[in-house]
Amino acid sequence: MEEAVTRVVLDRELKRLERRLDELVVTVARLKEENRALRQRQDTLTTERAALMQKNEQVRARVEAMIGRLKAMEGTT
User: Secondary structure of 31-54 in the HEC alphabet?
Assistant: First the structure.
């Protein structure tokens, strides 16, 4: 009789562990997908940032050139 009770307890514990393991597998899969999406987003943002920095540098150079031309025009008047 005691052996049957022990077996029932062990079976319950095994089923509980199986459910927990299934939950963990689902969580790991979800986290992997989330991580992949975040890395992709980071790559996109890094690319966008580099493009914006390049545009900013181009605009700065153009503004500096205009300022230089304006100063040159002031000197000739």
Answer: HHHHHHHHHHHHHHHHHHHHHHHH
Instruction: Give the whole-angstrom CA distance, residue 43 versus residue 47.
Output: 6
Handedness of CA 28, 30, 31, 33 (dihedral sign): positive
How long, in residues, is the chain? Answer: 77
Q: Which two tokens stand for residue 65?
A: 């050139």
pLDDT at 75 over 90: no
- Looking at residue 70, its amino acid is L
Average pLDDT over residues 10-28: 97
